[in-house]
Amino acid sequence: MRLLLDTHALLWWLADEGLSTQARDAIADPATLVAVSAVSAFIGTMCTKPENDETLIKFYKNVRPWGWWGRIRDLVLESDPSFQPNRDCARNWVNIVVGIVWQLSIFTTPIYLVTRNWQYFWPSLAVFAATITFLKFNWYDKLEKDPVVPVLES
């Protein structure tokens, strides 16, 4: 069986309320292919009022996201010409892909070790070592050092 759930049905199933026993059993059945629709999230986004510019500017200055922030970026640069937008999009995407491979190797390496499947253990360990080394130099070493703000005791 194939099911397409909207976000509410998924949340009701996770909370174990609001669904019939038959619906809960159908979703939980391992033979059922379950997909979750993002339509309700999209509709919720489009039907709510946007955040005000002040909130978006504060978020942008704090997080420095890359993407479609042109109008907010321009407002930030108008008020603070010394502000540096995040220009690391390509490097971040490479790190995301390598990080996914790294996480997979974290999962598979111990499994191959415990099952003594040496044919796959050593390549998995090599992938782990290569990806963690890559992430150390291409991600961790390039993290910006935020100033430490002391916590004042009251």
Give short descriptive properties of this protein.
single chain, 3 domains, two-stranded parallel ribbon, mainly alpha
Outline the structure in words.
The chain is mainly alpha-helical. The chain contains 7 helices and 2 strands. It has helices spanning 7-15, 21-28, 39-47, 53-63, 70-79, 89-114, 118-138, and strands at 2-5, 33-36. A two-stranded parallel sheet has the order 1-2. Helix 4 (53-63) crosses helix 5 and helix 6 (89-114) runs antiparallel to helix 7 (118-138). The mean pLDDT is 88.
Number of domains: 3
Low-confidence stretches: none
What is the structural class?
A: mainly alpha
Principal-axes geometry comes out as flat
Annotation, overall tally of beta strands: 2
Order of helices and strands: EHHEHHHHH
Strand order of the largest sheet: 1-2
Helical proportion, percent range: 55-70%
Rounded mean pLDDT is 88
Q: Radius of gyration in whole Å, from Cα?
A: 23 Å
Distance between the termini: 60 Å
